[in-house]
Amino acid sequence: GGLPVYEFGFEDLEVTDVVATDDPKELDEIIVSPNPYYESGQSAQGQTGNVMRVSNLPFGSVVTVYTLDEGYEKLKSELEHLKTKGREEVAAAIAEARDKGDLSENAEYDAAKDAQGYLELKINEMEKVMANARIIDKSQLDTSSVTILSTVRIKNTKSNKEVSYTLVAETEANLKEKKISVTSPIGKGLLGKKVGEIAQVTTPAGTIDFEIMSIEIL
């Protein structure tokens, strides 16, 4: 398998208050709502009407959303659970509430029907995500510089110790598996660097210099 890519439409896009900048600190001011790594289904629908808003984006920027294979498989598993176990539980709750008598004044029945509506909405939204997913070949991903999904071997220029990390989305970070978030101090320091370049990473103990030894897509 490869990596799913979620596509977003930008029809009728309106850009306001455009200010050109080359200050990397401006990237810390970017706001994405809903966050595509956290939001899906009902929550995204209710908050933004299926519109992803990007605020404070520097002029000329490109927005790309990635996920890993395991994230895609997790979504498939959750969808299957909702369509089977989830629907069974809601149907049982509706049947139980119906057996209690007059439906016109049955709060439990109303709550169960509402839960059914929310469940079907979430299933529908997740099915849309799955239908729009595109699988790409990892071998076609760029390895000329560090990006999300890159596996990077780095060397501490002071201690000469080497370690490898894979840069992933925040929700898929797992230090035991050497997967670090692109929003972490190391992740931010590595992004955009090429083999042979030095990445400066700011930590509570001070600034550490890492040399980029290799970049791969595993």
TrEMBL record:
PROSITE patterns: GREAB_1, GREAB_2. GO terms for biological process: DNA-templated transcription elongation; regulation of DNA-templated transcription elongation. InterPro entries: GreA/GreB_C_sf (IPR036953), TF_GreA/GreB_CS (IPR018151), Tscrpt_elong_fac_GreA (IPR006359), Tscrpt_elong_fac_GreA/B (IPR028624), Tscrpt_elong_fac_GreA/B_C (IPR001437), Tscrpt_elong_fac_GreA/B_fam (IPR023459), Tscrpt_elong_fac_GreA/B_N (IPR022691), Tscrpt_elong_fac_GreA/B_N_sf (IPR036805). Keywords: DNA-binding, Transcription, Transcription regulation. Residues 143-216 form the Transcription elongation factor GreA/GreB C-terminal domain. The keyword Transcription applies. Residues 69-135 form the Transcription elongation factor GreA/GreB N-terminal domain. It holds the Pfam family GreA_GreB. One of its GO terms (molecular function) is RNA polymerase binding. It comes from the Eukaryota. Belongs to the GreA/GreB family. NCBIfam families: greA, PRK00226.1-2, PRK00226.1-4. HAMAP family: GreA_GreB (MF_00105). Necessary for efficient RNA polymerase transcription elongation past template-encoded arresting sites. The arresting sites in DNA have the property of trapping a certain fraction of elongating RNA polymerases that pass through, resulting in locked ternary complexes. Cleavage of the nascent transcript by cleavage factors such as GreA or GreB allows the resumption of elongation from the new 3'terminus. GreA releases sequences of 2 to 3 nucleotides. This is Transcription elongation factor GreA.
